[in-house]
Write a structure and sequence with these properties.
Elements lengths: L1 H16 L52 H8 L4 H5 L8 H7 L8 H17 L10 H5 L7 H10 L13
C-alpha cells in the first residue's frame, strides 16, 4: 500500500514538472534570457537622395534620418502634421482639447506613480506564494479587481440600457 502511494506521488510530481511550454503574454517576469520581441524595432529603409550635395551634415550621437520616430509616425498615420510634434509642445490646433482634458488639473508624474504602485502591488501579492502547478500570475494578482461580465450585463439590462447579446455563462 505504501509503495502505491510513493509511486502515485512520483507520477504526480513527474507530470507536474512537464507543465512548461511557451511563455504567456500575461507573464509578469521573463526568465528566458532571450530578447524581448516587442522591443526590437527595425530602422526605416535607407534612401538615396536625388543630389548627394544636399545631404545634411553628420551629427555624431544625434538623430539619423532612418531612426524610428513613433510619435510622428502615429500622428502622420492619423492624418496629422508630424512637423508639429517634432517642433515640440502641443500644436495650436490641439490646445483647446488639451486645455479641456486638463481642466481639473493634471499630474505630470502620474505614469511613474502608477508604475510604482503597480510594482508594489504585484510585490505584495507575490510574497509567500508557493505552488506546485504553474499559474498565470497576472490573473492571480488582479483577480480581486476583475469584473464579472455577466453581473454587469444584467445590471445594465435592469437599468434599461441597450446591451448586445451575449452567450450564456459557462456552468
Amino acid at each position: 500500500m505504501r509503495r502505491a502511494h510513493v509511486l502515485a506521488s512520483m507520477t504526480f510530481l513527474a507530470l507536474a514538472a512537464c507543465g512548461g511550454g511557451e511563455p504567456r503574454l500575461h507573464e509578469l517576469r521573463s526568465f528566458s534570457g532571450s530578447p524581448e520581441e516587442f522591443a526590437i524595432v527595425p530602422n526605416k529603409p535607407l534612401e538615396r537622395p536625388q543630389n548627394l550635395s544636399e545631404l545634411p551634415a553628420p551629427t555624431p550621437g544625434g538623430a539619423n534620418r532612418t531612426d524610428q520616430t513613433p510619435q510622428a509616425d502615429a500622428v502622420a498615420a492619423m492624418g496629422g502634421n508630424p512637423a508639429a510634434i517634432s517642433a515640440g509642445g502641443i500644436p495650436a490646433s490641439d490646445g483647446a482639447l488639451v486645455q479641456h482634458a486638463s481642466r481639473f488639473g493634471r499630474d505630470a508624474t502620474i505614469r511613474q506613480e502608477l508604475a510604482q504602485a503597480d510594482a508594489e502591488f504585484r510585490q505584495r501579492k507575490s510574497r509567500f506564494s508557493w505552488q506546485l502547478l504553474q499559474e498565470d500570475k497576472y490573473n492571480r494578482a488582479y483577480s480581486a479587481q476583475s469584473l464579472d461580465a455577466y453581473e454587469w450585463l444584467e445590471r445594465y439590462r435592469a437599468a434599461g440600457a441597450r446591451t448586445p447579446s451575449a452567450p450564456p455563462p459557462a456552468r
